[in-house]
Amino acid sequence: MGWISSAQQERDHRGLRNICAADGHEGTAGNPLGLSKDGTRVHRSHFADPFDGFYGEEQGDNTRWLLTAQAHEAIRDPLNPDAAEHTVAVYGRADLDRRLGEAQRAGVEVTYRAMDDTNEEIDQP
Prior knowledge:
A hairpin with a 5-residue loop joins strand 5 and strand 6. The protein is 22% helix and 22% strand. The protein has a four-stranded antiparallel beta sheet with strand order 4-3-5-6, covered by helices on one side. The two termini are 16 Å apart. It contains three helices and six strands, in the order H-E-E-H-E-E-H-E-E. The protein is α+β, with helices and mostly antiparallel strands and 125 residues long. It folds into two domains: 43 residues, no CATH class; 51 residues, no CATH class.
């Protein structure tokens, strides 16, 4: 467990422990809450959405993953959209799981590897 901000502690004491600080909805089994780097509880789906302000902001989840697959909408390289094979970077386990799920539903085989800040492959956490 990570640290919780004083604002989140106040929310907890007001009975809002299982309410997302970002959208006000309850955490559920399908979309549980996690701790953001600023110490608030938000849905884990926020950490996986590249268009969300909490993207990649889950405490203790800074791993960068490279996913490689045959060209498909589930895995698309926006810088080279016509390539036969695409490699994209995602940040955090929540986004990795989301992308792998999309690829699996689409029937696309994906390879992935965890990378460090120097672009060296690391053992998968």
